[in-house]
């Protein structure tokens, strides 16, 4: 395939090339052949769906780990300071996205921004006893300005104090399981026990984030697919830059 720094231009070059025209011409078939090929493919899709359902069940059955003294992990919001347990907002479950926007950054990470563009109206999650928040190391004022640019409405808080608490804990030999493995971005899930205790139940990062991305899932159903040339999600723009 013809490569190019601009994914759209690269794909246009490929489709207009002799190779691209020949490859697409080879896929033009009769209605009967079309239905036969798609029936075969549907069987593979159904098998993949069953496998994903089994993975989700296994994920829910993974062992969990307590977050000791969870209230020492603090987050700044426009309404003041909140602790990790308070981020549950009275619900049993909490999903947290660690977003790459640091104190010195002028803009949020392109890939993180693409992920967050897919966060839905939270009322569906909340109806299932689940809260969602995003956090970043930037001060809350910078975070609020970035939310204004992107139009996001989900809670987005400053985690700088939590990062400092992590550092102190690690100096004492504590293992922080919910700190992103690469130190920057990722998603983690927490559960709140009947006595208010907090447990870390799951984390993912990198391509594990693709489960969130409806844009990818829709493009995967099209002939041109994701139309990416390296760098994955960074091929997209921030939503306000289109």
From TrEMBL:
This is DUF899 domain protein. It holds the Pfam family DUF899. It comes from Aspergillus flavus (strain ATCC 200026 / FGSC A1120 / IAM 13836 / NRRL 3357 / JCM 12722 / SRRC 167). InterPro entries: DUF899_thioredox. It comes from the Eukaryota.
């Amino acid at each position: 395939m013809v490569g190019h720094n601009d994914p759209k231009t690269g794909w246009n070059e490929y489709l207009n090339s002799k190779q691209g025209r020949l490859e697409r011409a080879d896929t033009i078939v009769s209605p009967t052949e079309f239905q036969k090929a798609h029936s075969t493919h549907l069987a593979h899709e159904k098998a993949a769906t069953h496998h994903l359902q089994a993975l989700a069940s296994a994920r829910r059955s993974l062992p969990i780990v307590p977050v000791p003294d969870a209230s020492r992990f603090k987050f700044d919001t426009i309404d003041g300071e909140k602790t990790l347990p308070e981020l549950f907002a009275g619900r049993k479950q909490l999903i947290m996205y660690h977003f790459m926007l640091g104190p010195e950054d002028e803009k949020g990470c392109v890939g993180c921004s693409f992920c967050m563009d897919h966060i839905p109206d939270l009322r569906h999650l909340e109806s299932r006893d689940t809260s969602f928040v995003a956090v970043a190391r930037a001060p809350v004022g910078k975070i609020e300005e970035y939310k204004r640019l992107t139009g996001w409405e989900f809670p987005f808080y400053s985690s700088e104090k939590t990062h400092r608490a992590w550092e102190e804990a690690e100096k004492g030999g504590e293992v922080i399981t919910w700190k992103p493995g690469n130190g920057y971005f990722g998603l983690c899930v927490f559960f709140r026990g009947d006595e208010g205790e907090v447990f870390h139940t799951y984390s993912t990062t990198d391509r594990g984030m693709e489960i969130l991305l409806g844009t990818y899932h829709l493009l995967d159903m099209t002939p041109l697919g994701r139309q990416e040339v390296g760098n994955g999600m960074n091929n997209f723009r921030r939503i306000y830059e289109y």
